[in-house]
Amino acid sequence: MGQTKIKDIALRIFAVIIALLLWVFASTEDNPVETWEISNIPVTLINVDSLSQSRLVLVGDRNNYRVNLNVRGRRRDLQLLRTEDIKLEANLAGANLGKGINPVLVEVKDKPANIEIPDNQPLFINVTLEELVEKDFGVSVQVTPPEDKSYAAQQYTVKPQVVTLSGAASYIGSVKSVVAKVDASKATSDLQVSMPVQILDSKGTPISNRNIECNPQKVDISVPIKKAKDVSVNVQTVGKLPHGVTLKGNITASPSKVSITGSDDIISSIQSIDTVPINLGDITESTKKQVKLIIPDGVTLLNNPQGVVTVDVNVETTTTKTFSVQVTHLNLPDGLKAEVLTNTINVTLSGQEGNLNNIAAGNITAVVDLAGAPTEDGEYEFSPSITYPPSAELVGVSPQKIKIRITKKQG
After folding, report:
1. Is residue 309 domain-shared with residue 282, that is, in the same domain?
2. What range does the domain containing 265 cover?
3. DSSP-based three-state secondary structure for 3
């Protein structure tokens, strides 16, 4: 019995070993060891700040470096592997780096224990470096004005007025301006805000702050908000127009209204802003002049930093014009004949040039009244009566007298 029991136990152990070997064989066939290529594994750059010691800087996004890596393991383990399970680093410190494209060794810092990395595949990434440049830029402020037109934003103050940008030479060279924006659309009182700056290129497009370091990144801005209103411009004049020069229409200013701002008690009493007087005695022709405005104390002009308006003075000069006018007669007594020996005369009128240009010879008459004319045959001199438009004045007639031959009718 003892030996039979021992044989039975031995057979059972042998069966277990056979089963185990069969399981191992089956497992190996179903889950073999394989080598796979894993794509786009992120590479972490370390000691990037050390580049500044060599006056160099990284170009591009430091988080955008990836490599493909061959890994070895069981199929099922490989199927579960994620790119973030493998930690890769590239150390920029101590490497012999310079401007341009530099190959940098990539090291495997962490991986799953059931995954192997073949030793025969050194990994590199290419990093592009440029000269580190620093440049100061003045900060301009863009203020969105109050929506309520009875308020206005005054001249802002910004501290600091200058920020320092540092980065790759190509990035700094593309910077056109540095701005900070303040929204005063709802403001009815003074604003004190701290705002981040924006870095803009020549087209006004923001440049990513990841590529350029700004110091400081925020600026303090003060924007006074005061009452505002529109008032008319009053053109002041001194003297008189020269003789022969007359005003044509009104003297006008452009713009005819200006916006002013200040404390409520000051601007509430202002209805117009005067110009510096212009001397009419100096005007001999139509002219436009840039004239300064007289700004009261405590008042500020909006949207007119020069404080000037264009004054338009339209004038006409008095001139003369001579017309050749046909002479006629009337009221000739019965039994007489009349022959006008001086058929035309010259009539000279004076007036504004525009008015004279609208007058034709047909608008002027030269008439001799022969009522009471001599009854004896002969040549006689008469003074014609001249009529002309009321927009002109008579200067002279030449000749002043005309000759008419009068004869008796035969029969």
Report:
1. yes
2. 228-313
3. helix
Cα separation, 411 vs 409, in Å, equals 7
CB-based contact 133:184 (threshold 8 Å): no
For every residue of 20-48, which 3-state class applies, written as one string? HHHHHHHHHHHCCEEEEEEEEEEEEEECH
Flag whether 17 is in a domain: no
What CATH number is given to the structural domain containing 54? Answer: 2.170.120.30
**Number of domains composing the chain:** 4
Domain boundary, last residue among 266, 285, 313:
313
Question: How would you write the pLDDT of the chain (411 residues) with one tens digit per residue?
Answer: 566 667 667 676 766 676 565 554 445 567 899 999 999 999 999 999 899 888 999 998 888 999 999 999 999 999 999 999 999 999 998 778 999 999 999 999 999 999 998 877 789 999 999 999 999 999 999 999 999 988 989 889 999 999 999 999 999 999 999 999 999 999 999 999 999 999 999 999 998 767 788 999 999 999 999 999 999 999 999 999 998 888 888 999 999 999 999 888 889 899 999 999 999 999 989 999 999 999 999 898 988 889 999 999 999 888 899 999 999 999 999 889 999 999 999 999 998 888 899 999 999 999 999 998 898 899 999 999 999 999 999 999 999 999 999 998 886
Give a yes or no: residue 3 inside a domain: no
Chosen domain end from 313, 347, 364: 313
User: Cα 323 to the chain's mean position, in Å?
Assistant: 57
| Claim: this prediction has a pTM higher than 0.70 | no
